[in-house]
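As the next step, I needed to go through one protein, both as residues and as discrete backbone shape codes, included below for the reader:
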Amino acid sequence: MLDQPEPQTFNSGPPRPSAILRPGVPLLAPGTERYVVAGGGAVVISLWQGDRIAVTDMEGLQACELVAADAKGRVDPGIIGESSGTIAEGLKAILASGSQSGQAVKRHLERRSIKLSDARGVRLFGTGARAGASAEFTATRDGALIVCAPGAAMQVDAHNTLTPILLMVHRAKVRPTQDVELPDPLGDPLQDIRIATRTAQGFFVRAGEYIQVIDVAGRQCTDFQCFDARKLDQGLDRPLDATTTRTLMAQGYPSPGLFSKGFDEDMTPLVELVQDTCGRHDAFGLACTARYYDDIGYPGHVNCTDNFNDALDEYGVRPRAGWMALNYFYNTAIDDNNVLYLDEPWSRPGDYVLMRALTDLVCVSSACPDDTTAANGWNPTDIHVRTYSDKETYSKAIAFRMTPDAEPELTRETGFHESFSAHTRNFTEYKGFWLANHFNNDGAIAEYWACRERAVVMDLSPLRKFEVTGPDAEALMQYTLTRNVRKLSVGQVVYSAMCYEHGGMLDDGTLFRLGDQKFRWIGGDEYGGKWLREQAEKLRLNAWVRSSTNQMHNIAVQGPKSRDILKEVIWTPPAHTSLEELEWFRFTVGRIREYEGAPVVVSRTGYTGELGYEIWCHPKDAGEVFDAVWEAGEPHGISPLGLEALDMVRIEAGLVFAGNDFCDQTDPFEAGIGFSVALKTKEDDFIGRDALIRRKENPSRKLVGLEIDGNETVGHGDCVHIGRPQIGEVTSATRSPILKKNIALARIDIAHAETGTEVEVGKLDGHQKRLPARIVAFPHYDPKKSRVRA
């Protein structure tokens, strides 16, 4: 008998919308606006009668001050329904600070004619406030609202950090998408040009002036093109050439920093990219063309190329069938199969690029009309262009979001930037800050030898710092770290992993114990602090986790001469451990030179495999700290150290780096830091414990050292083979000056991880070219740690 076919089933009812998750990205309902007020800063928004306002203390213990003014500039708490208030001391302090936030607020107050002589505000939160504490208000009439997160500078041996306030506004009247409020101008605009959806406009800028191209509503692309105006006057039609630009910049498209310029075909620089809050663009594809739409079945569709031709006609530019351009906010790339693909833009409402004209320019920008693909999120909207005077000054910056749902923060200079920039202009963006790659005259190899033989100073301020305090602070850290925190004494530091439930690593870092229930977690990932707060909330622990990254910057002084240098610099009170007495993984509190000097915390920690220390201070004191270290270090031959040399010394010393040597799919044993998991000595449960027990008993991969025969370099991601099959991959690699050979860290299948095993590192496609190598003892340099313990 033949089997009967299974009956077919059909979905009943109407189709359901696509299920799309956007974790971390706030999806705001129409009429809802979100603002994050940085600790120590303020924002100003417009209010209309009936608007509802909610303010939230995101991390706890942060004071908040609300100052409302009517349409005539008169301050009145009644605008948000409050009958009385206190003197607005917080706002006045922010205005007097001279900070960027204070200056922006001052411009708002001047434009709105708001008078603060006897201004009174509403004070919220502060002492005792829990993370997530909130308050709501309703606007009784039109006006403006100033939201402040005031506070004094943090003390390095205390926990009085400044943290953000979240402001949510629910408008009584929903405005159309095209009426989305633009971000504040970066200065006084010379031109304000709205480029309506599906159109393009030409405009003229002079040499030195700035061009800001803004995505108004988010997920909208714009093509930008420009010409040297003098060449146009001479009849030379030379637009910005994407191929020339990519070739000279050695990047897919220009970005703020060293490789920031756009060129024409004569290799004349036309524009320089100064700031970018999106970070994803394109310079490969043409602006959309009539032919493109014809070929996909949309003949006659509006397109950017025809719009460019119309906009440039008045400037005497000959039309093209297709325009190359800098395609801002386009999310396109070339995949491993050599296919040019696109997806929705990364840009959010208000994202922008800021360029500087390097000569007089005729420019054109479009609001791309493509509604046939995801290029504009299926919904084309407006683009806005502002130009600014050459008298304005803007720092080079790339937007960095500390977490996916965070507001973008432009790349900043650390407190030590001015000191280091006296020795180099070669900086790269690292987690929201500019850090030096290498320094003038010497370079990475000379800096490397200075670290191994004398002493170096490096800027490590981007490390993420969190103040963990409260009656349950120890319980929280004991549950979330793999180390036994209960054994940590005040004044001690411990290195630990931080793991998810499945045993994969979230981060690694060091924990300082400043008091009975006072800790400072220092790691590499901003999400670590948010995750700690989530665990505290889930467990209902009475503990606060507050970011202090912006309140505490640090340099490392490393090398055999580091103790001799710092004993001349660091003054400690009699009750504290002196610099000479400080042991490995201990810290002390002191000052620079003497009792009245800048306050610092000094720890005997580092990332080089050498005797070394780290000095932690408030950014306002960074110049004093650096000058004292440099002056004391010059007789000892101190040198600055950049990221390139740092990578060399840390790989030799077997010190792992997030993103290279571990990720959330890697457990501490596979990352080579199994010593940080206290399975035997820690009786308390901790996150990931059960998974780590299973993974330790049944290992599948192991981090090992490799020595490569010959002088060809290997790099992160290179495959490792025995015969045809791949048995691992390189996680980090460098040329070791002291060992005179190429070395690497690699994660290898446990079946082939024995020391002495001969392997091959694959280049090209992994098979056409192989480099012989062998597994060696790990780490390569000073495996007994005798130098760091010296």
Notes: The mean pLDDT is 93. Residues 218 and 348 are 4 Å apart (CA to CA). The longest helix spans residues 100-112. The radius of gyration is 29 Å.
